[in-house]
Specification:
- This protein is mostly helical.
- It has 2 domains: 41 residues, no CATH class; 72 residues, Methane Monooxygenase Hydroxylase, Chain G, domain 1.
- It contains 4 helices and no strands.
- The longest helix is centred in the last third of the chain and has 36 residues.
Length: 136
């Protein structure tokens, strides 16, 4: 399948240029390539030659543990919410008051579990806000 024709013929890259660089320069280009959104060393070199902006992405290693914990809390809260929805459905489906009491007690247990998770979530959010939000 052929590539669709370009809309702007002047922006096509049709003139190849071959250059030689030192090991240090190649390492710097490779470093920029690994940190940026560029897909090839040639793209990095083109952006440098054209004095275009190179967007680099850095990962804060200190945020890995809190982010994993936030993802885990999100997953647990989602499963607790699903369980609460099931208990509510069972509660509405039964007729006897004994069964309604049983399902309401189970729902209260699930809500207490969710409350504990939300407290942990708020503590994590406070830590993140302390680190990232400006003091006012």
């Amino acid at each position: 399948m052929a590539r669709k024709p370009a809309s702007n013929k002047e922006e096509l890259l049709v003139h190849p240029i071959t250059i030689r660089v030192s090991d240090a320069t190649l390492k710097r280009l490779g470093q920029l390539l690994s940190e940026s959104s560029c897909r090839s060393t040639g793209e990095v070199a083109r952006k440098l030659l054209n004095k275009e902006r190179i967007n680099c992405f850095y990962r804060d290693a200190s945020m890995s543990a809190p982010m994993e914990e936030l993802a885990l809390i999100r997953k647990e809260l989602k499963s607790i919410g699903i369980n609460i929805n099931q208990q509510t459905r069972y509660f509405n489906a039964v007729k006897s008051s004994a069964e309604k009491n049983f399902h309401s007690d189970r729902t209260v247990e699930l809500l207490l579990k969710a409350d504990a998770k939300m407290e942990r979530l708020f503590a994590l959010m406070a830590k993140l806000a302390e680190k990232w939000l400006p003091r006012s």
